[in-house]
Amino acid sequence: MTPLLFNLYIFLMGLCVGSFLNVCIYRLPAGRSIVRPASACTGCATPIHWYDNLPVVSYLILRGRCRTCRTTISPRYPIVELLTASFGLALWMRFGWQPQTVVYFLFVATLLVITFIDIDHRIIPDAISLPGIPIGLFCSFFLPQPGWQASLIGILIGGGSLYAVAWGYSFLKGREGMGGGDIKLLAMIGAFIGWQGVLFTVLTSSFIGTLAGITLMLRSRKGMEMAVPFGPFLAIGAILYIFFGPQWIDWYINRFLI
Questions:
Q1: Pairing with 238, which of 35, 86, 128, 232 sits 20 to 30 Å away (CA)?
Q2: What does the domain layout of the chain look like in residue ranges?
Q3: How many angstroms separate the Cα of 165 from the Cα of each of 157, 214, 255, 257?
Q4: Quick one: DSSP state of residue 221?
Q5: pTM of the entire structure?
Q6: Helices in the chain by DSSP H: which ranges?
Q7: How far is it, in rounded angstroms, from Cα 37 to Cα 89?
Q8: What is the pLDDT of residues 169-211, one digit of tens each?
């Protein structure tokens, strides 16, 4: 198989995984099984045939509508599929034939599910983040980076740092400003990418989240009372670390500290 065909194969597999992630995003917050029943239209409950369930392609052919009742299908479905496929291909091109390619792909896929659930429902399901902590720590024993020590410290720093921020905000303001889901998510992130990744994630997610929050507040005119989910920004920071974090950290150390 030529490199071009293999890249296409990786991308197509990513689209299929993305289709499954859409099921998780839709069903997990409702407490429904992600295995059964088969996918059905949310408007008329008609089961979706396999030829109408092809990632991206079926959406384009049906022009974003159910074949039976013509209910509009959210463009989020092909977006999630394309994001999953693109990240899968990017990870393959970045790391090649290495165990961490598979681990990072599963990690990124999990972050995508968390991101869109948090956007929709303002929650990060414990059913995703809590099992992710021991899984990330377990994987660290078999990968060159971050190593189990850095992974364990990442869990402690990740969960502990946001817990301290949440406690401080609650103490000063008298109300909750950060949910427990964000704390568990950052602990999971620390398990997969270590304490260095946690520090990078906190800095970049805070910067990006602040810019996005200010923009949304100005557009909505709700001021500082507007609630903005922080989970998606933590996910963005973690993904950026996977691809660019170590290089940026080395550049910063060599540029400013040496």
A1: 35
A2: 1-86, 98-258
A3: 12, 20, 30, 28
A4: T
A5: 0.89
A6: 3-27, 57-61, 76-95, 99-121, 126-140, 148-173, 180-220, 231-252
A7: 30
A8: 565 565 555 567 888 999 999 999 999 999 999 999 989 988 8
